[in-house]
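re: ur question from earlier - yeah i can do the single chain one, its not a big deal. heres the input i used so u can compare w yours
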Amino acid sequence: MHAWPASEVPALPGQGRDLRIHDTATDGPVTLDPGPVARIYVCGITPYDATHMGHAATYNAFDLVQRVWLDTKRQVHYVQNVTDVDDPLLERATRDGVDWADLAVQETTLFREDMTALRMLPPQHYIGAVEAIPGIVPLVERLRDLGAAYDLDGDIYFSVDADPHFGQVSNLDAAAMRALSAERGGDPDRPGKKNPLDPMLWLAAREGEPSWDGGTLGRGRPGWHIECVAIALDHLGMTFDVQGGGSDLAFPHHEMGASHAQVLTGEFPMAKAYVHAGMVGLDGEKMSKSKGNLVFVSALRRDGVDPAAIRLALHSHHYRSDWEWTDQVLQDAVDRLGRWRAAVSRPDGPSADALVEEVREALANDLDAPAALAAVDRWAARQEAEGGTDIGAPGLVSRTVDALLGVAL
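and the output i got, formated as tokens:
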């Protein structure tokens, strides 16, 4: 599976700062020092609907992570999956009377278009669950051989008790885990499970549903968590720098994935930092496909909204915060974009050397994009009020905003 084209990232004078970011597992800041190649895995979409603002906010956050690392002159090895076979996709295809595979291709194509328009840097490896199945099957077989997986009426489950570190990503108690498992795709009440929290590794073939040859597992399809584990281990190995996604993935997805990987390899932890973006709401509720309260990136683009304004709207809220999408949020972003473009259109202006360092420091401090926007706002206000004589300043501001915030002025 191919990703989307990369926009050029301008080189800035000097060098950026190491990233300090909030780690869910320790509930505190960690300073990441990845070495010459930074490794990041971000969980991708289940392609049964278009990209909404909640998706965009999540991928915006991890685009900033990449840009901070690139500014430190590191390379970035970024991997993202596509869950192109799963219950929600199959259910939507049945509801709409379309082939599930065609629906997945259609919505993945639209996602790529949205990411290209928003100038999100693409992953080096963009892997679908279906194409990962040949690598998933031996992992499930190995877990079974290790005594960490068991058969239940032909389905294969992972035993969470096999991992002594289980629970150390989300740090939730058993009752909270059980409630979230039921809410987020698990089956804690299924009779016969060794532990209600045990997640599915391999779903035996069901009539009318797609299935693949699973070797000694029999025909079926993979569970959600083992999919990402197989892709991450194949392309990044263990103890990569950042495991990312929305805050609703901390449990069960990232918790279970970490346990799968830790049992498979005997190493701990799977990732040095578990980083989670907040939820975007609309009309007082979390924006989600199940609720249908969605604002789509593609719809905004069709209405003529500049993708740069969409990115500024996303940047105006700290990535870890839960916030509400409103018409005013978008209008404020449109107005800001206009002010910034007017400011950099002049032939000269106030020195921007300090601005570069302010934006770098803001983003290195747990991706504080609102502080970075405020710094550019101050420069633009000085430009409007006083002007300046530095002929290189407008260009430097434009390159800084492009390189570090992904916004083309």
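The chain has two domains: 20-282, 305-405. not sure if urs matches, ping me
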